[in-house]
Amino acid sequence: MKIDLMQSKSSLSLREHIAVSLRTAVNSTASLSLTLAAMGIIFKKVAIVKIGLLSTPAIFLMMLYTSLYRPKVQAKARARRVEQELPYAMRHLLIEIKSGVPLYNAIVAASEGYGECSVELKQIVCEINAGKPETQALEDSIFRNPSVAYRRSFWQLLNAVKTGTNIETSLDNTVKNMLKDQLLSIKKYGQELNPWTLMYMMFAVIMPSLGITFFMILSTFTGMSLSGNMLIVLIIGLSLFQLMFMNLIKTKRPMVKAQ
User: Fold this and answer.
1) From first to last of its 259 residues, what are the pLDDT tens digits of the chain?
2) Within the chain, where are the H helices?
3) What is the DSSP letter of 112?
4) H-helix or E-strand containing 146?
5) DSSP 8-state class, residue 99
6) Which helix (H) or strand (E) holds 55?
7) d(CA 14, CA 71)
8) For the chain, which residues make up each domain, given as ranges?
9) Which end of the chain has fewer CB atoms at under 10 Å, N or C?
10) Dist. CA 85–CA 73, nearest whole Å
11) What whole-number distance in Å separates Cα of residue 21 and Cα of residue 26?
12) Which of 63, 5, 74 lies closest to 29, judged by CA?
């Protein structure tokens, strides 16, 4: 959890984060439980009051887990933002190195215009300017960054600097591998879309249409009627399903910047 807090760039210590999570869980649990209890009293339904009181421990644990887990989610989101710009920032570094520019100046040049990746590079520059050795600044950046691609790329760069090998060759291989990985991720995403599209057609188009048609035909023989409330519930359910489906597709989409 300490690493998650650091990689999400949270200003809270581990103890402060746990304290804030406990307070958030208590407040959320109290609000939800009291709301359910109030609804039960207003509508004179004892069952709703009982549900509100009996579900308090489960609600508390769920809210506490969600609050404690939030830094990991934020770190993953930050990693995706870094990886979106990383190949282009590394290519900028490669062009600078090929032009004969020292590594420090190349990092300074790439610390603008590449979103979250430039933020990390700018922090490296600030640490070097503050007197930290270049290799140590790179190593600290690798440790605090949540992106696996970033850590792998800068480990190769750091090893090249430490061993005195050709930085240009190391960067060139790194950029080629990252662009190849991006192409593979795009192809994989395209292949995954086919079954997801089929599932969407089945659950959001075909099944509701056939279901309503079946009930209409059945009602002519049995006298059953499709009430307005059932239609409202169906529309709300389909709307929620489509929102969840769009969010799922969005999370699976590879973070590739159009160039």
Assistant:
1) 888 888 888 888 889 999 999 999 899 888 888 887 787 777 777 777 777 777 788 888 888 898 889 999 888 888 888 888 888 888 899 898 888 888 889 999 988 888 888 999 999 999 999 999 989 999 999 998 898 889 988 998 888 888 887 888 888 888 888 888 878 877 887 787 888 888 878 877 777 777 777 777 777 776 666 666 777 777 787 788 888 888 777 777 776 655 5
2) 2-7, 14-42, 46-54, 56-98, 103-109, 115-129, 134-144, 148-163, 167-200, 207-222, 228-252
3) S
4) none
5) T
6) none
7) 11
8) 2-78, 80-177, 180-252
9) C
10) 19
11) 9
12) 63
- pLDDT value of position 85: 86
The DSSP code sequence of 185-209 is HHHHHHHHHHHHHHHHIIIIIIHHH
Domain 80-177 CATH class label: mainly alpha
> Distances from the Cα of 186 to the Cαs of 234, 251, 254, in angstroms?
35, 13, 7
CA–CA separation, 124 vs 136, rounded Å? 9
Placement of tokens 């159009």 in the chain: 258
Tell me how far apart the alpha carbons of residues 89 and 254 are, in angstroms, rounded to a whole number: 18
Side chain identity at residue 198, one-letter code: L
In the chain, the amino acid numbered 173 is N
pTM of the model: 0.70
Residue 224: what pLDDT? 66
Residue 147 near residue 79 (C-beta atoms within 8 A):
yes
Residue with tokens 């969407």: 200
DSSP at 170? H
